[in-house]
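Protocol step 4 of 5: obtain the predicted structure for the target chain.
Materials: sequence only (see below). No template structures provided, no constraints applied. The aim of this step is simply to have a reference model before the mutagenesis design in step 5. Sequence pasted as it appears in the construct record:
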Amino acid sequence: MVNNELLLLYVAFALVVGIAVGYFLRLLISLGKRGSMELEVKQILLEAREEAKNITADAQKKADEIRERAETEAENTDEKRKTTEDRLIKKEELLDKRQLSLDSEESRLKEKQSELDSYSNETKELEERLRQELASISNMDEKEAREEIFKVIKHDYEEDLMHRLKKLDISGEERMQQKAKEVLVSSIHRLGNSVASEIMSTSVSIDSEDIKGKIIGKEGRNIRTFEKAAGVELIIDDTPGAILISSFDPIRRQIARVALENLILDGRVQPTRIEEEIEKAQAEVNQIIREKGEEAVYECSIYNLDNRITSILGRLYFRSSYGQNVLRHSIEVSHLAGMIAEEVGADVLVAKTAGLVHDIGKAVDHEVQGSHVEIGKRILEKFGAKPEIIKAMQAHHEEYPYETLEAKIVQVADSISASRPGARRDSVENYLKRLSELEDMALTFDGIDRAYALQAGREIRVFVTPENISDIDAVELAKNLARKIEGELRYPGEIKVNVIRESRTIEYAR
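Step 4 output (structure tokens):
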């Protein structure tokens, strides 16, 4: 019994000791884990602080860079603003000076005008007194007296007046030395060939109406892709055997025409194929533009132009004016200007170069605002053309004053090329209407028997009745008819008025 109790005591004591030892071991293990976790937390905090320092340093560096750029841009902006202000101040000073000059000139002109008005009034008063005295002496009014004086002069001095008029004509021609006519006639004769107009068609022919359905595509997918990629509008209507291409840009029309013809030949019309063909057509047309510009420069023997000017010049191959190809017209103006410059002793190279580029602004006038002269001037200035070339080309439509002899030569050459026979096309209806108006205008004068318009309306020959019209009347008739044509008709170049008075005497011997 005692042994059992001791055994129980030993067991109880062993349990107590085991529990105490287990608790102590658990306490030691938990304390170890806690120290390890604290170390990990401290390590994470250290790494976070280091990363925060790096981020702060990077942010500070970027902030410094942004501040430096902002300060630099602000300085540049201030400099530009100061430069602009200085330029505006100079312009204002210049405008003020010009305004003062204009004001003084205006006051001087007003004084001159007042003097002229006073002289005119005095002259009118004197003329009125003379008319009254003449009327009282002759017992005729002013109109009757004038007609009577003219009759007497025409009757008594008609032959003398005719001789004097002829002498005046001869002396005038001698003063001009006939140089202008000789130069122009020589130039026109050397370059008097008729140029066939090259119009780039905007209509594409098709063999079958089924092709229109392919071009349109399912729900209009193909035609929308084509119009978007080419920048044109396709007009597919009931017109048999044709598809029309509409665009204000002749280059785009040509690209669209080439691409559409290739698509029709290939037969595969789908969006991907459409984009590929348009890219090929663009490369092909750009190559044509470069080649045409280089051919024009080579034909005119001009080798000092920038390649970019040459490329822009080639675009004129696809531009026409009144049926006349603008590039061929420019080449012709260059040749004419060179011939005239050689005759009158001007700079041939400047005249030829200015003649070749005088219409270069027409290559982009549908894309850039302004007249083609102003656009061409900006193009030449941008690409480094010589100032004398710019001065010579900018005055061919009289938008700028003639500063050099070459400028007048280019204007004359441009007029010759545009107005000579065969250069530009016109419809048959307008052509016949212009000739008919010219003949009808001549027949409105009294004493005219017949009138014929010749040389495409550049000459009007008038036959008068010799019994009603004398030689001096014929001279006066020619002048009056020329004035009436100038005032009422619109025409290129000039019209020669040729009045013919012929008298015949017929007698029979029996």
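Step 4 remarks: The first strand starts at residue 203 and ends at 205. The chain is about 70% helix and 5% strand.
Proceed to step 5.
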